[in-house]
Amino acid sequence: MTPLEKVEGRAIPLGLKNVDTDVIIPAHWLKTTTREGMGRGAFESLRADPDNLFDRPQYKDAPILIAGDNFGCGSSREHAAWALGDLGIRVVIAPSYSDIFSGNAVKNGILPVVLPQAAIDRLMEVAETDPVHVDLDTQTVTTPFQDRFAFEIDPFRKMCLLEGLDEISLTEKSDAAIGAYEQKLDAERPWMRPAAAGL
Amino acid sequence: MTRPRTLYEKIWDAHVVERRPDGTCLIFIDRHLVHEVTSPQAFAGLRASGRTVRRPDLTLAVPDHNVPTTARLDAAGNKLPIADPESAAQLAALEKNAPDFGIRYIDAVAPEQGIVHVVGPEQGFSLPGTTIVCGDSHTACHGGIGALAFGIGTSEVEHVLATQTLLLQPAKTMEVRVEGEVGPGVSAKDIILHITGTIGAAGGTGHVIEYTGSAIRALSIEGRLTVSNMAIEGGARAGLIAPDEVTFEYLKGRPYAPKGADWDAAVEYWKSLATDPGATYDKVVVIDAADIAPSVTWGTSPEDVVPITGSVPDPASFADPSKQAAAAKSLAYMGLEPGTRMQDVPIENIFIGSCTNSRIEDMRAAAAVIKGRKKAPGVKWAIVVPGSGLVKRQAEAEGLDRIFIDAGLEWREPGCSACLAMNPDKVPAGERCASTSNRNFVGRQGPGARTHLVSPAMAAAAAVTGHLTDVRELMG
Fold first, then answer.
1. CATH number for domain B172-240+269-291, candidates 3.40.1060.10, 3.30.70.360, 3.30.450.40, 3.10.129.10
2. Do A18 and B326 lie within an 8 Å CB cutoff?
3. Does A183 contact chain B (CB < 8 Å)?
4. Of B45, B348, B366, B424, whose CB neighbour count within 10 A is largest?
5. What is the tens place of the pLDDT at every residue in B30-89?
């Protein structure tokens, strides 16, 4: 995973609320066994409109996306995060996210910044003409017009993003604790194992 | 004496392997369901890093999203090829990955095959008090039997395969209490549609919802699975319903459920899981069951719910300006005018199925309305897709398949089907579908498809009248 610390560039002022994962990447793009190339299907229904935001020259390769409440709701498909990543998006800024999407985003080196609607409204305005700067280390979003918005982030997620951590390697350090839990479970609740009489 | 705890807190506490200083916990996962769409990249990751599956015995793989719902075997009993090469590749990958990693696999032509969220409880693989994950957001479904079950992304699928754990932050708790008795024609689906309309699509974000109250207790397991299934439509990653005698009766004797003395020990443990008197939730919503009508969605978010007796709302009637804009966009997509009576909306397609509503009780509810009637001439396509091979055979033993077929509906093989249009079952652009599935998102049932979410009985009613219909008017 590519570490993320500072991101500066144009921000796509999408602004819509309840942007679901079927909008981010429709199901027919999920028929693949790899993680690559999802950007081609990203926001397909919105991009069917020739005047869509994503394909305007000023937002080509924009690393930031601004959205409304409950971004990434719906399906658990990580393909939504892969699609954003493939489009070049490293940061999403919204008032709230679905729980599954924000987890998937972080695991793919995408920072989900939470800011109140008033800040979103201001950033949408700035994004029309100017770049936005996001600094994960200082947890701030700034603009060329002296706007400065501080955001909160879970410290573990922050560390994973800053260091580009592979979570599985981290968990494998707890191998002994997992083994001890399994032994205790087998001793206390042996019936938790699926019955041998299964299929 | 320990402080009173909720059902969620008890299950969470029993699964903490390690607690980190920042509050993140390493949580043990008791059951992992795997399907063909969100797993190939996870298995590829394991291969690339030389990792194995830590607990293949706790993992069960079933293909469901991509499988066609037309015949899978020819007359001689040979497997028919899958026309779509991409679907075929994903199915082939699961068929290879499962044995390569020592995982139990239910083949697409096995009698037990079906939608993972139907198969899990039906096989007794899903149990109360367990943690269950699957690379599918409707894993919330298994909360209906009292399991802490939630959807995960593919990176987490790989993490669980490799370590049988997940790193998680504890969720907040929310109680949705539905008190009283629902009226005739009102099903579990109407209850959860009404709840979603009440709390909103993000109402449960960051929370696990426990459904309580006499109207929930009165539901069968099939009904409870329907309610918990759509917890995610209210933003909650998981739903929960406390296990009780109804749950134990449902699970007893199922293939993977505990047997003999193990069963007794399990039941005793499950009885201890109910929320303690005096335990508090971070958020409480109380709903009067008498206020719930047969319900239907008008827009493109599952929160866009009205009673069938209602009308398409005027976007200007919403207080929130962003909701006004979203409603206007939804209505343009749905081709609806404000003020149109829901019952005047014509329907060309019917889908009875999905992990929300494809269990035997759903089949019975739909058949009861269809019986003795015919599909309306305006309905071009109407399919009934049982949730599993076992549901299909049970329905056939009861003669339900004949009722559907005689009325002009199609009786299909099990799978996710037109819920998300990954297999050939799609709703044509610009046409409407009365669907028993869980999402009415733009393009969900096919590009340009217009979805109205309803209960199985309401879908059946629309099938015979050709428009959205108050099922109570068709009831004897």
1. 3.40.1060.10
2. yes
3. no
4. B366
5. 999 999 999 999 999 999 999 999 999 999 999 999 999 999 999 999 999 999 999 999
